[in-house]
Specification:
The structure is a single chain. Helix content is about 75%, strand content about 0%. By secondary structure, it is mainly α. The chain folds into two domains: about 35 residues; about 100 residues, Methane Monooxygenase Hydroxylase, Chain G, domain 1 (Up-down Bundle), CATH 1.20.58. The chain starts with a helix and ends with a helix. The relative contact order is 0.11.
């Protein structure tokens, strides 16, 4: 009987200690994976140009290309990263940002609604025009 009383407090202590260790481990793992997931530099013009380059490549890929799905998935990931990083601040007033948001919203909507279909020609032309506008606005600093 005496042994049972001595082990109950130990069980509680070990249980709490294990819970604390798990919380710390999950916290550290989550923080490190979040830092690695964001591949943007924080330099808006540089990140915007890199995203335009990737999206242009994704839109222009042939419908029967073997890497089309991989490019689409990478584009979706980069669009999400870009949107989450640059959704606040003075950047949202820039012409390049508003045009970029229009383009990525259209493309993301297409990939969500029609994941297995290539981008239609009409949308391709409009996206290419918007990408050129973004590049021109970035060169002007707008």
């Amino acid at each position: 009987m005496m042994i049972l009383l001595a082990t109950e407090p130990m069980k509680r202590i070990l249980s709490r200690l294990m819970a604390i260790v798990l919380v710390i481990l999950i916290g550290l793992t989550g923080a490190s994976s979040a830092a690695l997931a964001d591949s943007l530099t924080g330099n808006y013009p540089e990140d915007a140009l890199a995203l335009v380059t990737l999206l242009r490549q994704t839109v222009e890929v042939a419908p029967d290309a073997s890497d089309r799905i991989a490019l689409q998935n990478e584009s979706k990931k980069k669009i999400n990263e870009f949107a989450s990083r640059y959704r606040r601040g003075s950047i949202i007033k820039l012409n390049s940002y508003t045009t970029m948001r229009t383009a990525i919203n259209s493309l993301a909507g297409h990939y969500t609604s029609y994941p297995n279909r290539p981008v239609p020609e009409k949308m391709k032309k409009r996206l290419m025009t918007e990408f050129r506008q973004v590049e021109a606005a970035l060169q002007r600093g707008a």
